[in-house]
Amino acid sequence: MHKQNSDPDRQSVMSEMNDRTREVFRRVVEGYLETGEPVGSRTLTRTMSQKVSAATIRNVMQDLEYLGLLNAPHTSAGRMPTHLGLRMFVDGLLEVGDLDDADRAAIDGTLASNERDVTTLLDRVGSALSGATHGASLVLAPKHEAPIKHIEFVSLGPDRALVVLVFEDGHVENRVFAPPPGQTPSSMREAANFLNALAQGKTMSELRRVMADEIVKHRQDLDSLASALVESGIAVWAHDGEPNERLIVRGRANLLDGGAEEADLERIRTLFDDLERKRDIAEFLELTDEGEGVRIFIGSENKLFSLSGSSLVVSPYMNADRKIIGAVGVIGPTRLNYGRIVPIVDYTAQLIGRMLSGQR
C-alpha cells in the first residue's frame, strides 16, 4: 500500500541507530506530529520505555541533530524533526493503521447517489476526503480517452479560436484558445485536415505520441501558419485547458484555519496560487507513475508545488484494465497524521477505480 521513497544512505543510518536512539527519534517525531511543538528531554523521560536521564536524552538529541534529522527551532532544549527526519520516519518507523469505520463511512457515502457525471462524482469524493482528513484534497480526473472521430477549428476573432473535438462515443469537447497570429480560414482548414487524417481511431494520448514526428515529416507540406495552429490547438488538450477542468481541489479553508502563523498562511496562499495557475497538471499524475501504492512527498520533495512547507500523500487510481488514469491525494502541513491519512488515501483511490469501472 505505502510505497517507500527510501534510499540506501537513509536505510544505513536507520540500521546503525541503537534501540535508545531510535526510540528517542521516534518519540520526538510522534510528539511533534501530534502537537506541532518541539519535544523536550524532560517530556521524553516520562514516555521512554526504559528509565533514562534527561541528560542522556539531550545527548542523543544532539547526535540526531548532527545527523540532520532533528533541529532546535528556539534556544530551548526542545527538538522537532527536519524534513529529512520526517522522511526517515515515514520510510522506516511509520506505523500505518487500519481504516477507521467513520472514515470508511464518510468516503463510502459518496456512492449514495446514482450520479453518472464523472466530474460531479469526483467532486463529491474530494469533498468527503477533505472532510475526513481536515486537509485539502486533490483529485485528478481521468482524461476522455475514447477514439477521436473529428477535429475542427473555428475562428472567433483575430486572437481567439475554438477547437472542437468529437469522439466516436459521441462525447464532444470545445476549448477556446489563442491561435498563432495571422491565421486565415484556409490555414485553419489545412490544420484540421492534417489532424483528421492522423486522428481517425486514435485516442488523444495516441495522437499526441505521433504528432511531433508527423509535423516534422510534413512541415514542408503544411504552410507555417497551419503548422503553428496544429501545434497550439493540440496543446489545448496536451495541457488540459484551464487547470480546474481536470484538477479538483477541495478543502482549501482547512489549511487556512486553525490559528496558523502568518508566514504559514502566506505559504498556503502561495500553494493555491500555484495550483490555480498551473497548466501542466499532468505532473500530478507523473508523481504516481512508478506503479501502485500510496506515495508521500515531504517539503521540498513535493516538486509539483512551490510550497516547501507542505506534504502530499497521493495515490493513483486505475480503470478496469489496471491502467493508471488519474490520482487522488491530500495536501497539508508537514505534520500530517501520516499513519491515518495513508489508509484513507489508499482506500479512496481504490473506491474511485471501482466507481469508474462500474464496480460499485
From TrEMBL:
Coiled coil: none annotated. It comes from the Bacteria. Signal peptide: none annotated. Keywords: Repressor, Stress response, Transcription, Transcription regulation. Residues 120-342 form the Heat-inducible transcription repressor HrcA C-terminal domain. One of its GO terms (molecular function) is DNA binding. SUPFAM superfamilies: GAF domain-like, Winged helix' DNA-binding domain. Gene3D superfamilies: 3.30.450.40, Heat-inducible transcription repressor hrca homolog, domain 3, Winged helix-like DNA-binding domain superfamily/Winged helix DNA-binding domain. GO terms for biological process: negative regulation of DNA-templated transcription. HAMAP family: HrcA. Belongs to the HrcA family. Negative regulator of class I heat shock genes (grpE-dnaK-dnaJ and groELS operons). Prevents heat-shock induction of these operons. This is Heat-inducible transcription repressor HrcA. The lineage of its organism: Bacteria, Pseudomonadati, Pseudomonadota, Alphaproteobacteria, Rhodobacterales. The gene is hrcA.
